Amino acid sequence: MEANYSGYQAGDIVYVIYRNPHTYNVANIQEAAVVHHPEHEGQLALFLYETYFPLDSDIAVYTSQAEAEMAYEQSFGSTHEEGLEW
Question: What gap in Å lies between CA 37 and CA 79, rounded to an integer?
């Protein structure tokens, strides 16, 4: 997990492990954009699924998909199931 959130800039593309809020046992790696938070001037946010999330230590943020996949596998097991990549 990235520890320094101040190194991001609006426009950066990052990867997060996102749990489905409706089906808690489903998690996957999603691409997210770092953007200026529209309601909190001077703050950055993650834009994912048409929603703004705070860019803070509550969300594991990875700079590459490979890094996110390694963390996913450590936490949840393989990203491959029945020969299909998630």
Answer: 31
pLDDT tens digit sequence for 49-82: 899 998 888 888 999 999 999 999 988 877 555 4
- 6 has pLDDT over 90: no
Torsions phi, psi for 71 (to 5 deg): -65, -40
Query: 10 Å Cβ neighbour count for 16?
Result: 18
Give pTM, 2 decimals.
Answer: 0.77
* Residue tagged 């959130």 (tokens): 5
Distance CA(43)–CA(13), nearest Å, equals 16
Give the C-alpha distances (Å, rounded to integers) separating 82 from 28, 51, 78.
16, 31, 11
